[in-house]
Amino acid sequence: MALSIHEGDLHVTGSFSVAGGTSLAANSVTNEMIKAQAGLDVSKLDHRIVQVYAQEKDCDAVDAYRVVHIAKGAGTISGFKVFIDSVAVGSSKIAIDLLKANGAAGAFATTLSSVFEITALADDATDLALTVLNAFPNVSPAAYVAGAVFAVKVDVSVLGGTVPTGLVVQFTFDEEAQ
């Protein structure tokens, strides 16, 4: 079959079909071009997973170690937020770490550049209660592989006074399509 070339704009008022398939330039289809009712298969979409670890409201924070996510696909950690009902009084503090193991046989290691701490000694401690704290700048490195296992570790140090209450930790994971 001979190659036909059309230069300039082309407007089709009826149906348009391509028998042999077609290819589109990279990044030529944008999010705005896909209708909400398109019915795309989940296997073709990236996934945002939000996991929450929470301790009881109005109860003192306690030491904890819990698995919060097992990755189905490769991805990145895209969010890490902390919330408390009340701040520490005195020199007590909470240290929160997000640990990762690459697969079931892997050893857990921190994903953070520094453990996130909540303490009454912080300059802005009075603003910490009932405020969502963005701990994401502490995340490094953010990328992970399929099968990675994530755990939250909470260490409470009672050094005098009281510890914060109502601890809630939220992690956001963005994973590739499976």
How many helices? The count is 0
Strand content: 35-45%
Q: Tally the beta strands.
A: 12
**Assembly level:** single chain
Order of helices and strands: EEEEEEEEEEEE
- CATH hierarchy class name of the domain at 58-175: Mainly Beta
- Rg on CA atoms, Å: 24 Å
Unreliable sequence segments? none
CATH architecture of the domain at 58-175: Sandwich
Overall 3D shape: elongated
**Broad structural category:** mainly beta
Which fold name fills CATH's third level, the topology of the domain at 58-175? Hypothetical Protein Tm1070, Chain: A
* Gap between N and C termini: 38 Å
Mean pLDDT: 85
The biggest beta sheet, please?
A: 5 strands, antiparallel
Q: How much helical structure, as a percent, in the residues?
A: under 10%
